[in-house]
């Protein structure tokens, strides 16, 4: 299959593989650094708390990238003598693990939005419906995308990792749906809004900056995965910091309920 590529396309594919590897290593380094940076606060605010849904969700989405990104992604980019069949298995595993990771990180942000609106009854009904309408197509696009990944023979002896030579553009549709889901509406009259606004603004800026070059390069073979791991790690990092900020805020005198979200504040009127 690799022999069918022209010399120019082969060089571009090798270059894109190398560039993507650099981004993957950078994203993995950022994730590990942030985990170490926030670990003391996490131990104090999360690990020492009682087990509940939010604690389990936090830990799941916080540490899952260590498997799908730091371990599996770097392996299929840097591993030696990885067979084509093994590459396909790895891509399928990474694809679904990342999907679960994105969904769990977004669930934290969704519950955060629900908290800002003081558990608004309308949102209580609309958010589950919107969740299905957005994440249903994401699963569908994932099912379309994963079989389209074509892995070729290594272009030269000693080539590291899996040599992807062809995919379709369904992955970009997943991120379009993700951007739609990220269009939250906040309640600016809540003190809680002041806590989470900085992180929310960061998420919007990051998504916008990353999506623009992604749309420009998605049609160029090999660049479909360029920013995937960076977005994966940033979602986990920002979602984790949101919950840590909320729990830190809880120690500053607000009255907090211990319900599903574990961070709903019953604030006094300003």
TrEMBL record:
<dbReference type="InterPro" id="IPR045340">
    <property type="entry name" value="DUF6533"/>
</dbReference>
<dbReference type="Pfam" id="PF20151">
    <property type="entry name" value="DUF6533"/>
</dbReference>
<feature type="transmembrane region" description="Helical">
    <location>
        <begin position="90"/>
        <end position="111"/>
    </location>
</feature>
<feature type="transmembrane region" description="Helical">
    <location>
        <begin position="123"/>
        <end position="145"/>
    </location>
</feature>
<feature type="transmembrane region" description="Helical">
    <location>
        <begin position="157"/>
        <end position="181"/>
    </location>
</feature>
<keyword id="KW-0472">Membrane</keyword>
<feature type="domain" description="DUF6533">
    <location>
        <begin position="24"/>
        <end position="67"/>
    </location>
</feature>
<protein>
    <recommendedName>
        <fullName>DUF6533 domain-containing protein</fullName>
    </recommendedName>
</protein>
<keyword id="KW-1133">Transmembrane helix</keyword>
<keyword id="KW-0812">Transmembrane</keyword>
